[in-house]
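Reminder to self: tokens first, then the designed residues, so the page reads top to bottom the way the pipeline ran.
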């Protein structure tokens, strides 16, 4: 059973909207098939007796860019990843309580060029701030091939495979 891309994109957007602030692309970028952006920001703190006595605090952030098209080639994938890094990294605000900020790039298509999947699998980026005392940033990439229900990720984005497996199962269970 072939998966309808627009229906599957609504599943992805609904799953992100539970924990992320989702912003749809309203023609902001015309040359790239950006479907939506999703931002996740979390802060954890621990106090002792009063809020003025901090024990610890940390911040974790994630900026996700979801691209959707019928077909992706290597050059389009590279442009999309470069766009996500160029747009996401300036938004990172490292400080002593910053743990990490991940840049997540997701591709959803009915078909991928073999070289495009290799670009997604091999692309990596990591940056630390103040010798990692102020946290780090990592690039997570993943691709969902809807025709074969196969998932391709880079090493850092291995968590995306489990995420897409659950979405494929939920989509295939629908009446």
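Designed residues (175 positions):
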């Amino acid at each position: 059973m072939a998966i309808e891309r627009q229906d599957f994109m609504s599943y992805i957007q609904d799953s992100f909207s539970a924990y992320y602030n989702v912003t749809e692309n309203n023609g902001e970028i015309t040359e790239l098939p950006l479907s939506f952006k999703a931002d996740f920001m979390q802060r954890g703190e621990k106090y002792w007796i009063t809020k003025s006595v901090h024990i610890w605090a940390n911040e974790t952030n994630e900026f996700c860019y979801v691209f959707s098209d019928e077909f992706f080639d290597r050059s389009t994938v590279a442009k999309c990843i470069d766009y996500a890094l160029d747009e996401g990294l300036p938004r990172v605000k490292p400080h002593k309580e910053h743990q990490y900020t991940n840049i997540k790039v997701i591709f959803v298509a009915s078909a991928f060029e073999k070289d495009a999947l290799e670009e997604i699998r091999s692309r990596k980026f990591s940056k630390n701030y103040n010798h990692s005392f102020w946290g780090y940033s990592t690039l997570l990439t993943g691709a969902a091939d809807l025709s074969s229900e196969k998932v391709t990720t880079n090493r850092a984005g291995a968590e995306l495979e489990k995420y897409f497996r659950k979405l494929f199962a939920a989509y295939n269970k629908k009446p």
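Helices lie at 5-17, 74-88, 114-122, 159-173.
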